[in-house]
Structures are given as C-alpha cells and as structure tokens.
C-alpha cells in the first residue's frame, strides 16, 4: 500500500505503571488529543486536514514508566512531530504534576509505525 | 436609526452571552458500558469524542469553548448502560440546550462496526449537566 493511501494517525503513549482507571485514562487521552491537535493545526495543517477527512485514526500504546515515556518524547521532538505531554493536575488518583500520557500526531501512519514499532497496544 | 448603524447591526457578530470564568464548566463523556471495550479502546473513543465536541463547540459557541479552555478544560467519564440509554440522555441534553455529539465506531477492532460507543455532552455548567448525568457512576 502506498504511503498516501494510509490514514494519518494520532498515537497516545500511556504509562502502564500508573494503572489508571479506564475513565481517568480516557480523560488523559482526550486532553492529549486536543493539545496535540491544537499544536498540529499551527504547524502541520495539511496533515490535520487529511486526518480529519479520513477516519481520524487514533491508537493507544503502552509504555512502561516515565523514563520510557521520556525516551519516546525525545524521539518525537527530534522527528518534529506535533505532540502534547499531559501532566495531571493531581486532584484524583495520582500526585500533582505526574506525567501520564504523551499524545503524538496526527502524522503519517508509516512514521508512527516506524517510531513506535516496539510498543504494544494498551489494553 | 442611521443606515450605517442598521447595516452594522445586520453584519456584526451576535453578542454571545458572557460566561463568567469562575463558572464550573465540564465536558462529560458517557461511555457505553454494554460493549465491554478495553481501556485503550475506550481512551481512543473518548479522544474522538473530545475532538468532535471541541470542534463543534468552536463553530457554535466559541466564547463557551474559550471559557472552558481557560477554566482547565475539565472532563469526566461516566458509565452508560447501553446504546438506548445513551440515546435517551442525548435527547434530554438537547432539550436542555446542551450540545451533544455521538461517536460511532468504525469497527476495525474489538466491536461490531457502527456501534454507538460514546456520547459527549457539553462543555456546559455543572448545574446544567447534573440533572442529566448526576446519577451515573464514574468510569
């Protein structure tokens, strides 16, 4: 399949060690989605448009802990992709300022697959 | 009324009701619990919902969206029983003038295509939404 026919993707890298509840995790990803989209609109507007015209594909991936998350954070910055790092206000479940989720994209699917090939889906 | 004034009235943007910043604005996601989705799946569906609700609020009431952003964009997730339950909540919300958006899954993974996964309400004030989703359990 050519790169163009693949839907652009947004990825959420979620820390597995925090063991967040389903609702908490969902809200953190929603924050990440809006944050990353806001940035992408400024810097990658054509990609955003294509993402919205296709299925707005989103995937949730699992990272082990903060260190693991920061490793991928550096990769994402080096690749100049839009991102949003979510720090929780800490009103429930985790301490204030805890980094919970990194939202990345939208970006071409093959770029994502390449960057995050070692990560498994969060379940 | 002078002509200029008249034309201005026709073309000026409608004054949006001003929203005090101390108001407790929330976006509420009602997740269809019947579908037994995994955590990652729920998170992706809720993210879809958040983006959809944000974009549609941006078109319909930018001042409200702005106020919600400035007050920390609060979001909460609650459990809904079934697609029917979500439908009835959506109707109730619309009757109260609360924005409601439905998310249906493309069904590439885990669940049948077209399943009604998440209903997103708001942003709107705590008091407005309380009567609709107040009884639902947090997810």
As for the CATH topology of chain A, it is Bit1
Counting structural domains of chain A, the number is 1
Strand content of chain B: 15-25%
Rg of chain B to the nearest angstrom?
Answer: 18 Å
Strand numbers in spatial order across the main sheet of chain B: 2-1-4-3
Distance between the termini of chain A: 27 Å
Uncertain runs of chain B: none
CATH fold group of chain B: Bit1
Supply the helix-strand structural class of chain B.
Answer: alpha+beta
Largest sheet of chain A: 5 strands, mixed
Low-confidence spans of chain A: none
**Helix-and-strand structural type of chain A:** alpha+beta
Mean pLDDT, all residues of chain A: 92
CATH superfamily of chain B: Bit1
Spell out the CATH superfamily of chain A.
Bit1
Number of strands of chain B: 4
Determine the N-to-C terminus distance of chain B.
Answer: 56 Å
**Biggest interchain interface, per-side counts:** A-B, 29 and 26 residues
Query: What is the number of domains of chain B?
Result: 1
Provide the β-strand percentage band of chain A. Answer: 15-25%
What's the helix-strand series of chain A? EHHEHEEHE
Secondary structure topology:
The complex is a heterodimer of chains A (123) and B (139).
Chain A: E1 9-15, H1 22-43, H2 45-53, E2 57-63, H3 66-78, E3 83-87, E4 99-107, H4 109-115, E5 120-121
Helix pairs in contact in A: 1-2
Chain B: H1 3-11, E1 25-32, H2 39-60, H3 62-70, E2 74-80, H4 83-95, E3 100-104, E4 116-125, H5 126-133
Parallel strand pairs in B: 1-2
Antiparallel strand pairs in B: 1-4, 3-4
């Amino acid at each position: 399949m050519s790169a163009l026919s693949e839907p652009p993707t947004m990825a959420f890298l979620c820390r597995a060690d925090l063991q967040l509840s389903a609702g908490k995790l969902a809200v953190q990803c929603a924050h990440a989605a809006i944050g990353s989209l806001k940035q992408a609109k400024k810097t990658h507007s054509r990609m955003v448009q294509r993402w919205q015209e296709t299925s707005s594909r989103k995937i949730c991936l699992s990272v082990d802990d903060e260190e693991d998350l920061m490793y991928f954070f550096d990769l994402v910055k080096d690749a100049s992709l839009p991102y949003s790092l979510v720090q929780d206000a800490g009103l429930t479940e985790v301490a204030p300022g805890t980094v919970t989720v990194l939202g990345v994209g939208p970006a071409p699917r093959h770029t994502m697959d390449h960057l995050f090939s070692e990560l498994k889906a969060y379940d | 009324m002078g002509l200029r004034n008249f034309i201005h009235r026709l073309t000026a943007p409608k004054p949006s009701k001003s929203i005090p910043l101390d108001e407790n604005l929330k976006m509420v996601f009602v997740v269809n619990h019947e579908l037994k989705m995994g955590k990652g799946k729920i998170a992706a569906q809720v993210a879809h919902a958040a983006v959809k609700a944000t974009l549609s609020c941006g078109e319909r009431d930018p001042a409200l969206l702005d106020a919600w952003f400035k007050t920390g964009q609060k979001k909460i997730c609650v459990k809904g029983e079934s697609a029917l339950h979500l439908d009835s909540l959506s109707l109730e919300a619309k009757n109260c003038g609360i924005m409601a958006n439905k998310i249906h899954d493309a069904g590439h993974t885990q669940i049948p295509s077209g399943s009604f996964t998440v209903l997103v309400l708001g942003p709107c004030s705590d008091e407005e939404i309380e009567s609709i989703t107040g009884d639902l359990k947090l997810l």
